[in-house]
Amino acid sequence: MTGSSDARTVELGDRLVAVRRRLDAAVEAAHRPPGSCELLVVTKFFPADDVRRLLQLGERAFGESREPEAGRKVASVLRDRVLRDRESPDPDDVPVFDMIGSVQSKKARSVARWARAVHSVDRPKVVDALDRAAAAALDEAERADPLGILLQVSLDGDPQRGGVVEADLASLAEQVVAAHALRLRGLMVIAPLHGDPEHWMAETARVHEVFRARFDDAAELSAGMSGDMEAAVAAGSTCVRVGTAIMGERPLVSQ
Ligand SMILES: *Cc1c(COP(=O)(O)O)cnc(C)c1O
Q: Does residue 218 lie in a domain region?
């Protein structure tokens, strides 16, 4: 790639400005401090060159959802940086990648190499696999910090969407707290498509409140996507995961 002004960079830049405006307005409307909700740009199915364009545009936090595409893309983007960093090291400038899709146990080891955090943890078996994987990655100096964990909550109990139901949330959280190579950071929610969106966001806020009262170090709430970020910020989201509104419609073939 790519001059700073190729057509795709311009397009991404325009959509990014619009989304950042929406996010800032939502944070302000909720009487929250500026910058209190992170924007995770969801780059799943889009090529590494798009991540490079977004870096050029100043974005630093990205969401990916599938191995092995994600690991390959991250490695490719970070490889350019290692070359550049010899000249101008700047720790604040390092991109971070979160895993937002479900993790199969056998993919845990590769996810632990590149992910800052996993947003979609919903079963004891996956907690075990990620703890072992993160411990190995720490041993091998493939990562410097414990792997962040957000527990995906199911608001309606639909097994298709994944997520742990509220009744099982605390015991799963205790398992993460006890794991040496993991750090419990909070909850993640995908609002069900059926029913009243406001009802689901009110439920989200309620479940998060109860959770925070017990696990006060794990105050993060990953909620809100292209279509519902305003409602999610009003419900207390600290991280919106936005794909389509920035990247455009996802291509059918992943890269
Ligand atoms: C794809 C995806 C998103 C982004 O959704 P958009 O509607 O494209 O913004 C957010 N969260 C998760 C878990 C996803 O898989």
A: yes
> Does the Cβ of 43 fall within 6 Å of ligand 1?
no
How many separate domains does the chain show? Answer: 1
Q: What is the SS3 string spanning 76-87?
A: HHHHHHHHHHCC
Best residue among 23, 100, 160 to mutate for probing ligand 1's pocket (most ligand atoms within 8 Å of CB) is 100
Q: Is residue 58 situated within a structural domain?
A: yes
Cα separations in angstroms, 127 against 17, 145, 184, 196: 37, 16, 11, 32
Report which protein residue has its CA nearest ligand 1's atom 12.
Answer: 100
CA–centroid distance, 165 to ligand 1, in Å, is 20
Radius of gyration of the chain (CA): 18
For residue range 108-151, list pLDDT tens digits in order: 999 999 999 999 999 999 999 999 999 999 999 999 999 999 99
State which residues form the domain around 201.
Answer: 7-247
CATH number at residue 33: 3.20.20.10
Output the pTM of the full model: 0.94
Long-range contacts of 141-144 (CB under 8 A, 24+ apart): 142/112, 142/113, 143/112, 143/113
- Helix, strand or coil, per DSSP, at residue 151: strand
Kindly give, in sequence order, each residue whose CB lies less than 8 Å from that of residue 71, ignoring residues fewer than 6 positions away.
110, 111, 113, 114
Rounded to whole angstroms, the Cα distance separating 203 from 14 reads: 33
Q: Residues 81, 95: contact at Cβ < 8 Å?
A: yes
